[in-house]
Write a structure and sequence with these properties.
The structure is a single chain. Strands 7, 8, 9, 10, 11, 12 and 13 form a 7-stranded mixed beta sheet that branches. Strands 1-2-3-4 form a 4-stranded antiparallel beta sheet, covered by helices on one side. It has a two-stranded antiparallel sheet with strand order 5-6. It has helices at about 30-40, 55-65, 125-130, 215-225, 235-240, 250-275, 340-365, 370-390; strands at about 5-10, 15-25, 70-80, 85-90, 95-100, 105, 115, 135-170, 180-205, 280-315, 315-325, 330-335, 395. Strand 5 (about 95-100) and strand 6 form a beta hairpin. Helix 1 crosses helix 2 and helix 7 runs antiparallel to helix 8. The protein is an alpha+beta fold. It has 3 domains: about 5-80; about 125-330, no CATH class; about 340-395. Mean pLDDT is about 85; it is low at about 335-350 and about 380-395.
Length: about 400
């Protein structure tokens, strides 16, 4: 069946530089011109509205309304590199990307963004890591995972009530009077101010736990403190761009997350400070007034080299993750030995037995039903967890 085609370069309603293309069947006189005008009209929508069946059905209805006997229409959208004009395929959540054709780095609205990248080293180190684990490497994949890194000054004033314990000598009597030490609890109100500087890394992917999670985030913060990566130049970017994951979290959203986390860190520091200043051993600290101030002084988009690999040991296939030019292990699956499986099974039996004993004692002592159910439930949960882990294909180390 013959077909009519149209292709336009446009800017969507939310400011994204895109290419729009359409194919309609069967071809008819004037259909290509109508498709071109239709694509310009569709570009008035936001980028997210240009995906899915809805936009296709709208296009089909519009063409039929113009008098064209169209059986089918296809609409495709891709990003347009403002530097070289290349068509870039990205997921709808992407906010920044690196062009694999010219190395340009910027946001989806055409604004240039400076990106920094730590060197990845070579795959031989990852293969050597697999051999150190006693196996043979099967596959090695390198991905560059994006993070927004913030340097900030944090300051907070606070007032807190501290419950503390202190020794108090008490006169006692026996054959002769003497003093013994007893501990009493007292309350004191403490006010103060805490100040510190901090580096906070925020994952720029929406599902960061898939790519190293908290371990990779902490590695980025530590690495930034003593070795900041260089800015990636266009020529250096071209060969690694296909492996660079497009950030899905914008700088403003990441900054809000970083400020929230730093305010929580300031609250923890205020509690520690109040506890240190108590005249005795602090047992409880309750903040009654807390006024944080976070000043973000620097913001950078950085990419961490994340190695994912699989290796074979015996009859099993296991996976692992490493980071950086030295292939530092982040998370590795390890085979479970027969002794470890037996130990976990024994632990599950003991947990189940302890749960039954706790329930029996609780009934004897007429403990509240809720406490009884809680004790039994926790015991059974621990038993089930240990039993299931005993039959797991591997453990994570």
């Amino acid at each position: 069946m013959s077909e009519a085609k149209a292709f336009v370069a446009e800017t969507t309603a939310d400011g994204r530089l895109v290419y729009l293309s359409a194919v309609a069947r069967p071809a008819q006189p004037g259909l290509e011109q109508a498709l071109t005008e239709l694509l310009h009209e569709l570009a008035r929508r936001s980028y997210s509205e240009l995906h899915g069946d809805r936009v296709r059905f709208d296009a089909l209805r519009a063409l039929r309304g113009m008098g064209f006997a169209v059986e089918d229409v296809e609409i495709a959208v891709s990003y347009r590199c403002p530097q070289c004009g290349a068509s870039i395929q990205l997921n709808p959540e992407a906010v920044v990307y690196v062009c694999p054709y010219c190395g340009w780095a910027g946001d989806v609205r055409g604004g240039r963004v400076a990106v920094r990248v730590w060197p990845a080293g070579h795959r031989g180190l990852v293969e050597e890591l697999a051999r150190k684990l006693g196996g043979e490497p099967v596959s090695v994949e390198l991905l560059y995972v994006p993070f927004w890194v913030f340097e900030a000054s944090v300051e907070a004033g606070y007032s807190a009530t501290v419950v503390y314990r202190k020794p108090r000598p008490v006169r006692a009597y026996g054959r002769s009077p003497y003093y013994e030490t007893r501990y009493v609890r007292e309350r004191v109100r403490i006010s103060g101010r805490v100040r510190f500087r901090a580096v906070r890394a925020v994952p720029a992917r929406l599902h960061a736990e898939v790519f190293g999670g908290e371990e990779l985030r902490l590695w980025v913060e530590r690495k930034w403190s003593f070795q900041q990566p260089p800015i990636l130049e266009a020529e250096e970017a071209k060969p690694i761009a296909p492996s660079m994951l497009a950030p899905e979290l914008g700088a403003e959203e990441a900054a809000e997350a970083a400020v929230d986390e730093l305010e929580d860190a300031a609250a923890d520091e205020a509690r520690r400070d109040a506890g240190r200043r108590a005249p005795g051993y602090a047992e409880e600290v309750e903040l009654e007034r807390f006024s944080p101030s976070v000043s973000v002084e620097r913001r950078e988009l950085v990419f961490a080299p994340y190695w994912f690999f699989t290796y074979r040991k015996g009859l099993g296939l296991y996976s692992g993750a490493a980071v950086g030019s030295e292939a530092t292990p982040l998370r590795v699956e390890l085979p479970l030995s027969t002794a470890e499986r037996a130990a976990r099974l024994a632990g599950s039996w003991l947990a189940a037995a302890a749960s039954g004993l706790a329930a029996e004692l609780a009934l004897r002592w007429q403990v509240e039903p809720l406490a009884l159910l809680l004790a039994a439930g926790l015991g059974l949960l621990a038993a089930a967890k240990l039993a299931s882990s005993a039959f797991a294909p591997a453990k994570v180390g």
